[in-house]
Amino acid sequence: MYTTRPIVTGRTGVIAAGHHLATSAGLKMFSLGGNAVDAGVAAGFALAVLKPHENGLGGECPMLIYSPAEGRPVAVNGQGTAPKAATLQWFRERGITLIPGDGLLGATVPAMFGSYATALARYGRLTLREVLAPAIELAGRGYPVYGALHNALAGNRERFLNEWSSTAEVYLPDGQVPAVGTVLRNPALANTFQRLAEAEDTARGQGREAAIRSAVDLFYRGEIADQFLDFARNTPVHDAGGEAHAALLDREDFAGFETKVVAPVAADYRDCRVFKCGPWTQGPVFLQQLRLLEGFPLRELGHNTPDYIHAVIECAKLAFADRERYYGDPEFVNVPFDRLFSDEYTRAQHARIDPNLANNGPLWNQPGAEAPPVYTGDTTHLDVIDGDGLMMSATPSGGWIPSSPVIPELGFPPGTRAQCFSLREDHPNGLRPGKRPRITLTPSLAFRGGKPWIVFGTPGGDMQDQWTLQFFLNAVDFGMDPQAAIDAPSFHTNHFINSFYPKNPGDGTVFSEEGIPAETLRELQARGHRIHLLPANSNGEVCAVAINPATGLREGAASSKGSGQAYAAGW
Predict the structure, then answer these.
(1) How many domains does the chain have?
(2) How is the chain split among helix, strand and coil, in percent rounded to 5?
(3) First and final CA of the chain: distance in angstroms?
(4) In the beta sheet, which residues pair with residue 384?
(5) Residue 78 domain-assigned (yes or no)
(6) Angstrom distance (rounded) from CA 316 to CA 511
(7) What whole-number percentage of the chain has pLDDT above 70?
(8) Is residue 313 situated within a structural domain?
(9) Dihedral pair phi/psi, residue 317, rounded to 5°
(10) Which of 45, 264, 390, 425 could tie 135 with a disulfide, CB 3.0–4.6 Å?
(11) What distance in Å separates the CA atoms of residue 32 and residue 36, rounded to the nearest whole number?
């Protein structure tokens, strides 16, 4: 099968990430004696510099880690919480029915740094200073502007110049969009990283984990928190609706924030066991799709045939309806996975699928169709496996420059993830102080034949768990290697309520990449599917790293799709 690039193979470690300089940052950690988590964290910090339109320190980063020493996967809860002042009453009194997707009102506690630091302290070998070194260099000395970043800056130029001067000072030198190849620097962000490394330095004598905690204290309880809050609370920003609001966060929200390491959710499929973050993400929707699809003979149906695509799409619709009906922060709501994953429920849901007719009607609490959501790129991803079998999958996102202004002293903007909350009191994802919004970020980790096998993921908002699902099915049911599984033409439906402002419901359209035969699409139309054609290589930027069961070698693959490219490299 045609692939856009070869598989990357290594013995002591392979990393795949959303920018080649981030993969390079990770490889440097291997050369220093670091492990997969050291490499992944270094790559993550580098991505926060290199892809500011897709992620940043004001955002979040859920991750999955498998440590052979512990013998079980864990989820690092890298999503920030809502401010204690963010009550339903506060929004009702002001006539706000949706939390805006830009400005400062949607800011939650920035969780990304805590997530990386927690993973590093618990599973890494190197110091925070060592893993921050590539990001400090990239921010301080600069990196070349590439096409996707140039386009993002061009698309936001007027807002930066007219409203967000602090962002313009960093990303529009002399008021102009930097040309592709121009070296771009962010001295304030380099200084923020340097201060975090110095906080670790001062506590080095207390031991490695305590020293890293010293940097965490600086970020959440020290000067960095003060500078973040001074800007976010005292600088009202206009959102797209024309209203100006400051953030609701305060020092108590920061001081009380804790990154937790928790058990993931898991389900079996064929000879695999797949692990996802809990229902504070959309991750379990991947597992519900697998439970439904196990009842179909996918290999016999044939790859990307009408029967296959129909089955995948109809299972997605049912799973995403359950996402809307049940998922929310499990510290606030009880998500009935015992029932949702049960054989009885799965059989009942499976019986709802008509093999010859698309269900384009409401599945649960879904009003009439509006404009379909179109993914434009707002997230990135990374995966790593080292020679000892330590595995990491992380999906950094949020705190991106198109949605909020850069904090001058820190070099990064706040996030807007609270936009994913519902302002309905009876909704499982309803806003509550201290609650995490249900996010779309969804790293993946799987065992095969009872042994650790693969980590994978993609940017893509609500579509992440459709594109990675097809990648997974390509590998498991159709025997494709990771690169071929990524490069195969893909599709998705918009038959759900969008997680992001303004939360438009979809109309059941199937978005199909070029490469799926026209006769297949015509047959799907005959079954009632609305078809929207996409150019080749449109859907997502999947990354994956696997352990080849035959050779034991680590194999990395990365997409050339989307507005940017992902890269894999081995050591």
Answers:
(1) 2
(2) 40, 15, 45
(3) 26
(4) 15, 392
(5) no
(6) 13
(7) 96
(8) yes
(9) -60, -45
(10) 45
(11) 12
